[in-house]
Amino acid sequence: MALGLFEGYGVELEYMIVDAATLAAKPIADEVLRLGAGAAALGVGDVEISETGIGWSNELALHLIELKTAGPVGSLRGLGAKFDDSVRRINTMLAPMGACLMPSAMHPFMDPLKEMRLWPHDNAEIYGLFDKVFGCTGHGWANLQSAHLNLPFRDDAEFGRLHAAIRLLLPILPALSASSPIMDGKMTGKADNRLAVYRTNARRVPSVSGRVIPEPVFTKGEYEGVLLEGIYRDLSPHDPEGVLRHEWVNSRGAIARFTRNTIEIRVLDVQECPQADVAICAAITAATRALVEERITPLAAQQAWDVDALERVLLDVIDLGDLAVIRDRAYLDALGVPALLGPAVPVTEVWAHLIETWLVPELGSDEFLPALGVILREGTLSRRIRRRVRQNMGIWDGDFPMWAVYEDLCESLPPGKGKDNGFMFRAAE
Questions:
Q1: What number of other Cβ atoms are within 10 A of residue 364's Cβ?
Q2: Residue 36's domain spans which residues?
Q3: Which end of the chain has fewer CB atoms < 10 Å from its terminal CB, N or C?
């Protein structure tokens, strides 16, 4: 029987495998999965660590590995420690190969045209077709590591409520999670370069990703008939055999997975450590639940928001991250932000209000607030990375300041290593 609203959670975290000395991408995910499974030959696509319930799996790129809850979990509490265990195990396997996991959502100086290698084993037909249709050697396919949060629904009524709430929150999620300030060796000025390239990575068939914000459809019939059928129709000249005719080809920022009755949120950059990812998921879940239960805004008002208005907020947050200011008072009202804060409110104040009002009473403060507090006080990981690079520029020349910051990030990922016990990557020492 399908789980109902907030009866379970699924979390997925993606990491790049890099050379421990040079930080160059290393396409050896198949070797890690082979070792994890204890298999004799390459080609294993999935491994489950039975004692923690965390699975490892391949993705499109051979230098990428995904860690995920093997099934829905009843609570987010303690989940960070379970992901930590898998990070430790994988880094132990990688060490003899001179490699390690790199956190954050984009490699700062990877050249995807030269370094991208597709997963060559199971599902190679699907990945090859993606490459043929979209050209997977760009940043939007080869160089992006995200976190996904899956929230369940039982039926059409629950889907409609959940989809409305997630659509409304989606534009401000990067204000917590942006972690990709650098691309092609340059600080671009955008807080979330992963989302910036994600928006256009399917430009040959634009309906695949749409405008990232999903259309206002609130039943399975509408979703499949309006949204998915449009994607399949547009893909058919490139995919006459229907290999990609599945709901997972939809690349919006939140997608319905009717095969497992969940909505998967996909706009989140992966953080510097699993505790931070899970804390962000907890904040999102608490705010989503308050919306779903109409403790903030009536359902009809949530469903009335069109893509245009939500996209305007999203684009601003992609550019500025936690420094964005929300100037749409109607949007602030929809999130329950007090009118006394004025007509324009910094997005960090919006999140501070949502966390204080909904997360703390729901889940308490001991496990999740330390990580969220760092984000609200010191900025997103994106801003902390930029600040650290600028600090290093007075010490080292050339590309070394950037390299040194990402080396620190790699060292801070395994728990017990790094100057902050692998918990949060600070803006300054």
A1: 12
A2: 10-412
A3: N
The CATH number covering residue 72 comes to: 3.30.590.20
Q: Which of 299, 277, 281 is nearest to 290 (CA)?
A: 299
**Structure token pair of residue 134:** 């979209």
Q: Which residues contact 9 (CB under 8 A, 6 or more apart)?
A: 69, 72, 73, 74, 75, 76, 79, 149, 150, 151, 281, 285
- Partners of residue 186 on adjacent β-strands: 183
DSSP 341: G
65-114 confidence digits (pLDDT tens): 999 999 999 999 999 999 999 999 999 999 999 999 999 999 999 999 99
Interval 118-176: pLDDT, tens: 999 988 889 888 889 998 888 988 999 999 999 999 999 999 999 999 999 999 999 99
Helix axes 29-37, 79-94, angle to 10 degrees: 110
> Is 425 among the domain residues?
no
Q: What is the DSSP string of 302-355?
A: HHT--HHHHHHHHHHHHHHGGG-EE--HHHHHHTT--GGG-SSEEHHHHHHHHI
Rounded to a whole number of angstroms, the CA Rg of the chain reads 20
Joined together, the tokens standing for residue 429 give: 């020492």
Three-state secondary-structure class, residue 140: helix
**Per the structure, how many domains does the chain have?**
1
Strand partners, 46: 57
381-392 helix and 400-412 helix, angle to the nearest 10 degrees: 130
How far is it, in rounded angstroms, from Cα 150 to Cα 152?
7
Inside any domain, residue 417:
no
Beta partners for residue 19, in sequence order: 99
Q: Are 31 and 81 in contact (CB under 8 A)?
A: no
Q: Which amino acid is at 266?
A: R
Residue 429 placed within a domain: no
